[in-house]
Design a protein that fits this description.
single chain, about 5% strand, Rossmann fold, about 50% helix, two-stranded parallel ribbon, 2 strands, mainly alpha, disordered N terminus
């Protein structure tokens, strides 16, 4: 589903607000990796069994637009199709940049330097399904995994 031209900007503004606080939001998870890797300060944290879903801001906007257009309320998991270990997007971003990925850091070693918000984000393992988003809102993700989202961001840098 493409974004409606009359709602695109409104949906994108809402999506950007929802994208987060800069610590573990879409910008950090996708755009931020490129800058962090280029500066040499990216951290690839490993916590066995830990998985996250990511989502591109354009897909958040698309979901908002679909809900507004259909006047549907409820709870929808706005997430990509592939939960992944948190270090995988960083390693992929490094690959796109032609650099070695940063070394793996065990969560226990990284935790003391994390903010309370970042620590709370790591307390649960989240493997989110987005079937309802697709079925009820008719959303077809533009960036179904972190790889498509990062590749698109890399190509527009």
């Amino acid at each position: 589903m493409a974004l409606r031209p009359d709602a695109t900007e409104e949906a994108r503004q809402i999506a950007n607000l929802l994208a987060g606080d800069g610590e573990h939001d879409v910008a950090h998870a996708q755009v931020g990796e490129f800058g962090q890797i280029a500066r040499g300060n990216a951290r690839r944290i490993v916590k066995p069994g830990q998985f996250f879903n990511l989502i591109h801001v354009d897909d958040i906007a698309q979901a908002i637009d679909a809900a507004l257009a259909r006047q549907i309320s409820g709870i929808f998991n706005v997430a990509d199709d592939e939960p992944s270990p948190p270090g995988d997007p960083i390693a992929f971003a490094a690959q796109l940049l032609g650099r070695e990925p940063p070394p793996e850091i065990r969560f226990e070693a990284a935790a003391p330097s994390m903010s309370p918000m970042a620590l709370s984000f790591w307390q649960e393992c989240r493997r989110v399904r987005n079937d309802k988003l697709k079925r009820e809102l008719g959303v077809s993700l533009l960036y179904p995994t972190y790889r498509e989202g990062l590749r698109a961001l890399f190509e527009t840098r």
